Amino acid sequence: MRMHGSAFRHKLLTVLLLAPATVWLVVFLVLPFVAIVVFSVGERAPEGGYQAAFTMAQYANLPARATAFWNTLILAPVGAFACLLVAYPVAYYLALRAPERWRLILLALIVIPFWTSLLMRTYAWMYILGGRGIPALLSYIGIEDLRLINTPGAVLLGIVYGYLPLMILPIYVSLERLDRRLLEASADLGAKPLSTFVGVTLRLSLPGVMTGLSLVMILLLGEYLIPSLLGGGKVFFIGNALVDLFLQSRNWPFGSAIAVTLVFVSVVVLIIANRVSTRFSGARQVDLI
Q1: Distance of CA 119 to CAs 19, 79, 116, 189, 230, Å?
Q2: pLDDT > 90? residue 138
Q3: Which of 167, 210, 225, 264 fits 273 for a cystine, CB–CB 3.0-4.6 Å?
Q4: Handedness of CA 272, 28, 66, 121 (dihedral sign)
Q5: Which residue, among 248, 240, 246, 237, has the nearest Cα to 67 in the 3D structure?
Q6: Where residue 284 falls among pLDDT bands split at 50, 70, 90?
Q7: What domains can be seen in the chain, in order of their start residue?
Q8: Count of CA atoms in the C-beta half-sphere (13 A) of 281
Q9: CA 25 from chain center: how many Å?
């Protein structure tokens, strides 16, 4: 009886500890998503908004926003991999090469931009890439009519700048946990530096790489601000389409169908990230921080 009472108290304590988070997730995540799914099979009311119905016409109409999907599915992976190319050397230096006394300071310098609103930082890039920024400076040396703002390149630059810390930190965590003795053993066995990097360092840091890619990719799938400001309405993401459908066109069912599709794509990205991490590094799942 005493053992059963102890087990009951343990289960009760577990339920009490999990209850707040469970209620929070159900109220603010599950129920809103259920509402979006219900909206997605409805119809647009004559005055805008939602009208009860059961139809798959909204999903059949997804090709109408093919440009937004195409831009997102092209620029989001390209932006994520561009972040990776910049972030990995930085994380590698911080974890394996930087003096330990400087490590926290350097990490703080990476995180500090997050203390400033992304809106303000993006406006700063609008000025830098605008007519009075870099193009004005280049005009002094004879390079005229160079357009940087309102282009896919400007959007990619804003993506790398805005999301770089989210890529650096997971990779840094994976590299910082790396057992240095494995690197020494690889060198002692005659492996060249490049072989050691590919076979040991990169392989064991792959969970952090996949975590960074997943975080950046999922956030970029719903990105609105950077394409709107640096793309000038010419580089349209799914996030821009959702804002237009919910706030301007007031076509809630069609916007909900796009949102449900976006959630599905995000889940696929996470599954692929975990599969790749498990396949190539042997880790059970992608490390999250």
Answers
A1: 36, 18, 8, 51, 11
A2: no
A3: 210
A4: negative
A5: 237
A6: very low
A7: 63-281 (1.10.3720.10)
A8: 26
A9: 20
Q: Residue 124 has which token pair?
A: 């700063």
| Amino acid making up residue 112 | I
pTM of the model: 0.85
Is the pLDDT at 220 greater than 70? The verdict is yes
Residue written as token pair 């005493």 = 2
Q: How far apart are CA 82 and CA 76, in angstroms?
A: 10
CB 266 within 8 A of CB 80: no
Backbone angles phi, psi at 131, to 5 degrees: -60, -25
Contact 22/233 with Cβ under 8 angstroms?
Answer: no
Asked if 287 and 174 count as a contact pair (C-beta separation under 8 A), the reply is yes
Q: Which amino acid type is present at position 1?
A: M
Specify whether the CB–CB gap between 203 and 277 falls below 8 A: no
Contact assessment for residue 244 and residue 138, using Cβ atoms and an 8 Å cutoff: no
Instruction: Please report, in angstroms and rounded to a whole number, the separation of the first and last CA atoms in the chain.
Output: 42
Both structure tokens of 191: 């492996």
Quote the CA–CA distance of 23 and 248 in Å, as a whole number.
33
CA distance 240 to 282: 38
Smallest Cα–Cα separation from 183: which of 103, 96, 87?
96
Q: Nearest 5°: CA angle at 70, between 65 and 73?
A: 125
Q: Cβ-count burial of 24 within 10 angstroms (0-12 exposed, 13-18 middle, 19+ buried)?
A: exposed
CB-based contact 226:158 (threshold 8 Å) = yes
**CB neighbourhood size of 68 (10 A):** 21
Distance CA 162, CA 158 (A): 6
